From TrEMBL:
Start and end residues of each External alternative NADH-ubiquinone oxidoreductase-like C-terminal domain: 478-544
Entry superkingdom: Eukaryota
EC number: 1.6.5.9
Source species taxonomy: Eukaryota, Viridiplantae, Streptophyta, Embryophyta, Tracheophyta
Pfam assignment, any one: NDH2_C
InterPro entries: FAD/NAD-bd_sf (IPR036188), FAD/NAD-binding_dom (IPR023753), NDH-2 (IPR045024), NDH2-like_C (IPR054585)
Species per Swiss-Prot/TrEMBL record: Acer negundo (Box elder)
PANTHER family hit by this protein: NADH DEHYDROGENASE, NADH:UBIQUINONE REDUCTASE (NON-ELECTROGENIC)
Keyword tags: FAD, Flavoprotein, Membrane, Mitochondrion, Mitochondrion inner membrane, NAD, NADP, Oxidoreductase, Peroxisome, Transit peptide
Main location: mitochondrion
Protein name: NADH:ubiquinone reductase (non-electrogenic)
Record's keyword annotation contains Oxidoreductase: yes
GO CC annotations, alphabetized: mitochondrial inner membrane; peroxisome
Amino acid sequence: MALARIARSGLRRSVGGNSNGSFSHEKGIFSEEGSTHKFSLLRHENAVAHGNQSYLHSIKTLNYMSILSRGIRTTPHQQFPNAARVLEESESEYEEPRYAGLEATKPGEKPRVVVIGTGWGACRFLKGLDTKIYDVVCISPRNHMVFTPLLASTCVGTLEFRSVAEPVSRIQSSLATDPNSYFYLASCIGIDTNKHEVYCETASNGGLPQEPHQFKVAYDKLVIAAGAEPLTFGIKGVSENAFFLREVNHAQEIRKKLLLNLMLSQNPGISEGEKKRLVHCVVIGGGPTGVEFSGELSDFIMRDVQEQYTQVKDYIKVTLIEANEILSSFDIGLRQYATKHLNKCGVSLMRGVVKEVHPKKIVLNDGTVVPYGLLVWSTGVGPSQFVKSLHLPKSPGGRIGVDEWLRVPSVEDVFAVGDCAGFLEQTGRPVLPALAQVAERQGKYLVGLFNKKIGKQSGGKALNMKDISLGDPFVYKHLGSMASVGRYKALVDLRQSKDAKGISLAGFLSWLIWRSAYLTRVLSWRNRFYVAVNWATTLVFGRDNSRIG
């Protein structure tokens, strides 16, 4: 026993982190599926910070588990319940937790690429990655990609939810068929760049023997595409009372709340004031998401509410609140067109800054009180708590800093794309906007880097990229912006930048271009068929107003 203890102590001393590690063990808040969860990667009684390294005292080791699940693999179940949690008191001050999971690849095995996230950047990378060269592991709290440009349409029944959700196993089939590729339904809670390991926690309460269920995955190459979180600017009451619009479950909750308020407002005994409040929909943020949602709501009111909720049709109202101008990145002529059109469709535009949010009202900085029944918050995105917790270089704004080849400097074999990544200041490049087309183009660029450069030069294994020529750096060219404003009208701005000259269109023709472009961008023929059928049935029969759940 004494020899074993000495051996373990020596091993732990030898694998202690160094100053470049990014293994985060601090407690924080991780937002998942619209709710907030506390996580603690390591349970400890005392930690003394020293640079980027912490010396942990009296750490209690965590659970063991098996990874032998198949199919579209979710977080594995434990094989030995009696060994679910091992409590080990150690005399060594360098004691650290041990996790079950995927160990490092062996010589002769394919390099393992771990992808964190299932957003635009991650899924474009997964779709194109050559699985003859690499094994791939995808880790995300959701098992699908959301086609965000059409998400607003699902809130009012124009489209069904399955039309905008693409299962990750259809995007990269090896996740369901390859014996060494896996999808894990989990959240990444820490990264140790020295050991080439990521640490994960199961995404939800699935009734596992030990919860929270935690495990590790070793990687040869790591692609962080963890996305971002909605910006609340620290305003009191936003997280508790407002709905965001970034996930399918957000759209589901908005739709349920909207229909519930419409039906409750028709009940006898409801005062005039309460009736007006219940059917008052307030949208905060005048970007493309806020404008498109407001347009969809106005369409829903003008056609469906007028026919099916005649008792309250004169009470329902949509208010869009923006601190500056709506659609600030669009051409000034298009902004003016959108303002006039939204006003014509019954959307009230209000300029103001929200001071605080209450369960039934919001208060602006000038003291104005705005009662509401439904509040949708769409004011942009910022770094998630997970990204903030990582000891990695940061770009302006707090995103993970990357160089011209989307690598994270100062650590080996780590790349970052999408809303969680931004160019470092020393690159001389601006931080790119948090747009789907930016993330998709970055994912496509990494596919070429991994398949044609790293893979063909045998650089896929860990710490094996020093002599690899990566070729041309990533260059982003903006293809333009589009936004629907309701009533078969849309805006198309094909300028490459805000100050550049280019084609700008508005009206019915733009609406046809908008629909055609997004229909072709939907990932699978199955979902394209769903979208086309939903559009046709909505045009002929109206929207589905049934409230389920």
